[in-house]
Amino acid sequence: MISISVFCLLLCTGASAFRFEELTQYVNTHQDEFVETLRQWIAVESDSSDVTKRADLHRMMDVTAEKLRLIGGKVEMIDIGTQTLANGSSIDLPKVVTAQFGDDPSKHTVCVYGHVDVQPAKMEDGWSTEPYELTDLNGNLYGRGASDNKAPVLAWIHALEVYKALNIDLPVNVKLLIEGMEETGSNGLEQMIVAHKDSFFSAVDFIIISDCVWLSKRPAITYGTRGNCYFCAEVEGPKKDLHSGVYGGTVVEPMTDLIGILDKLISSSGQILVPGIREAVAPLGDEEWSRYQDIEFDLQSFKQDIGLTQLMYSNKVDLLAHRWRHPTVSIHGIEGAFSSPGTKTVIPAKVIGKFSIRQVPDMDPAVVEKQVTDYLHSVFAKRKSPNKLNVTMVIGAKPWLADPKHPLFEAGKAAVKRVFDVEPDLIREGGTIPIARTFQDVTGKSIIMLPIGGFDDGLHSQNEKISRHNYIEGTKLFIAYLYEVSQIKKY
Question: What is the DSSP letter of 248?
C-alpha cells in the first residue's frame, strides 16, 4: 500500500501526463476500422433465446476472446455449465469471457461488464434492413445488438486498444467480464460471480456497466434501476375446453374469473391496489425532486414518440418519478385464451394471466410475493367461484440504487464534460438490469452505469441502431473515464 503523499504525487504527475488529444485523434483516424469490427460482430446471430443458434453464440464468445487476446489481454474462458431444455435434454451454456489488463497494485482496478448475446430479429418482424447486416444510414449503424450491447462492449475494447496502440500505460488496471446469456436471464452467471468473488473480484475496486441508454440527446449517467416480480395467475375450471353455445350460462368461466381478479390489481388512474405495495416505497426527498427538475426531458416529444395524446402524468417530475422510482403493475398477456384471427366460440378450461410489478427501494420481492398471492386469493374468494386459482412468482429481481455523490459518479461527470462539453443528466432506469444488484450483493463493490446508447436506439425493437457519433464519442468517453477514475484518491 503506497502512502497518501506518494499517491498525491502520482496524481499530480498523472494529471499533466494525460495525452487525451493524442488518444482521441487516434480514435478519429481509426473509426472506420471500429465500425468494420462492429459489422463483423453484428453478423454473428448470437440469439441466446434460440437454441438452434447456440453454435453462433459459442462463436461469438470465441470472437470476443480472440479480440481481447489480440490487444494484449490475459484472457480466460470460464465454463458455467449446461442449460436444461423443456424436453429434458441439456445444452452447453456459452462460456463467460474474462480478461485482465494490468496488475499494478498502486492503481485502482475496474471491472467492466457487458454481454454479446442479442434478442431475436427477423426481417418479417418489421425491419427496414437486414438485422444481421450492419447498415450505415444517415449517421446511424443499424443491426440487432448494435446498441444492446455489442457496440458498448466494443467501445470499451477499442478504448483499451487505443492506449496499447499509442504505447500509453493504462491509468487503471482493467478487468472485463463478458457473458452470452443476458437476454435470457444470465443463466449460470450469479454462481460464477459467487465462485470467483475471492479471486477474480478480490482486487476490483469498482464495477462499470454500459448496458443502458441516455434519456435524451444529453449524455447521462445511471444510478438506479427498478427490479421486477413477474407473476402467473392460473385459473382452472372444467376438464376440457367447452363450446360457448352448448355450455355458456351453465358454468363459471375461468376467463371471467381471471379478468375479474386482474382488474383488481390496478386502478384506471394507475394506483396499485395490492395492500402494502405503495406503503413500502422510499419517499421522494427534496434533493431527488430537484435532480429530476434539472433533467433534460420533453413530455411532448415523449408523447409523440410513442403515439399517444395523453400520459398518466402531466408534468416532468411526476412522470419520471413514476417511470423510475415508483412501482408499476403491467398486465402482459393471457395464456390459453383464443387470440388468433377469426371467431372461435370457445370457453377455455384453463387460462393463465401474466403480469409484473416493477420493484423499487424499499421493496422486497419475497414480501411482494406474499402480498400479491394473499390479495389475489382474497379477491378470488369473494367471487365464490368453484374454479381453482394458483398464483406463482416466476421472477423476483431486486432493484439497484447507488449514491450519485460517490466519486465514481464525479469521475463520470468529469469524463462527460471532457468529451461532450456538457454536464450529464443523472438518471435512473425504469427497467431491470439484475446483474447490477448481483454484483452489489455478492462482491460489495461500488457500481456505476455509464451508457453511450441513444434514447431512440430501439433496444429489443425493430431497426435497432446506435449512432456512429455515440459509438465513436463513446469510445473517447471510456478512454477519458479510465483516466478520471485514476484520479479518485486511495485511502
Answer: T
Helix, strand or coil for residue 319?
A: helix
Question: Residues near 428 by Cβ (< 8 Å), separated by ≥ 6?
Answer: 222, 223, 224, 225, 226, 324, 325, 401
Angle between helices 151-165 and 31-42 (to 10 degrees): 140
Q: What integer pLDDT is reported at residue 16 of this predicted model?
A: 47
Tens digits of per-residue pLDDT, 198-241?
999 999 999 999 999 999 999 999 999 999 999 999 999 999 99
Distance of CA 442 to the CA centre of its chain: 18
Residue of 47, 182, 457, 484 with catalytic role? 182
Please tell me the predicted confidence (pLDDT) of residue 305.
84
User: Is 117 assigned a catalytic role?
Assistant: yes
Strand partners, 370: none
Distances (CA, A) of 428 to 30, 267, 294, 295, 321: 33, 25, 14, 11, 9
Find out whether the peptide bond into 362 is cis, omega within 30 degrees of 0: yes
> What is the number of residues in the chain?
491
pTM: 0.90
Among candidate residues 455, 453, 452, 460, the one with its CA nearest the CA of residue 131? 460
Q: How far apart are CA 69 and CA 184, in angstroms?
A: 27
Note whether 372 and 394 are within 8 A (CB).
no
CA angle (425, 300, 314) in 5-degree steps: 85
Grid coordinates representing 473? Answer: 464519442
One-letter identity of residue 208: I
Kindly report, residue by residue over 52-86, the tens digit of the pLDDT. 999 999 999 999 999 999 999 999 999 999 999 98
Q: Is the pLDDT score of 11 beyond 60?
A: no
C-alpha cell at 159: 478504448
pLDDT on residue 86: 86
251-309 tens-digit pLDDT? 999 999 999 999 999 999 999 999 999 999 988 889 999 999 999 999 999 998 889 99
Report the distance separating Cα 476 and Cα 196, nearest Å.
31
3-class state of residue 195 by DSSP = helix
- State the CB neighbour count (10 A cutoff) for residue 28: 9
pLDDT the model gives residue 207: 98
Cβ neighbours of 88 (radius 10 Å): 6
In single-letter form, the type of residue at position 114 comes to G
Q: From the candidates 45, 47, 56, 117, which is the catalytic residue? A: 117
Sole residue written with cell 419517499: 283
Nearest to 270 by CA among 216, 314, 213, 223: 314
What is the overall mean pLDDT for the chain?
Answer: 94
What is the H or E stretch that residue 69 is in? helix 54-70
Q: Residue-wise over 286-306: b if at least 16 C-beta within 10 A, else e?
A: eebeebbeebbbeeeebeeee
